[in-house]
Model the fold of this input.
Amino acid sequence: MNYKFSNDRPIFLQLSEYIEADILSGVFAEESPLPSTTELSVELKLNPATTLKGVNILVDQGLVEKKRGIGMFVVKGAREKILKKQRNAFNEEYLLPLISIAKNLGIERDDLIKSIMEIYK
Done:
């Protein structure tokens, strides 16, 4: 794991996002175990409480489950949940503002779609 943490946001949030990205990319496959919080803490040189807080975000989101005495595992369907969450975020962060600006500029919907299709090629 080559996670680079910045000082602009809490480390536990960044950790959960890194693990989420690794689930999405297949580094951590669905139904496979995650490294233990102790292993993560040691490897990443993080406080164990910070590591646990980051992993618990994923548990709360239903992406990871704790199996008592065995460890933490990526749940089946986690990748699809992440994709859905990121697509919704994309719509809110990029598409809604884009549409708002296009409307303010008087760009019609069909013209906007045509422009997007030309650029997307």
Observations:
- The mean pLDDT is 95.
